Amino acid sequence: MTGDLAAFLAARRDEDEKLARSHAARPARYTARILREIAADRALLAALERARQEQPVLGSFRDDPYEPAVSFSAGEYAGLMLAVRLRAAVYRDHPGYRQEWSPAGAVFPPGPRHGQGDQGDGEQAREHDRGT
Question: Residue 128 to residues 16, 22, 24, 65, 117: CA-CA distances in angstroms?
Answer without folding.
Answer: 10, 11, 16, 55, 13
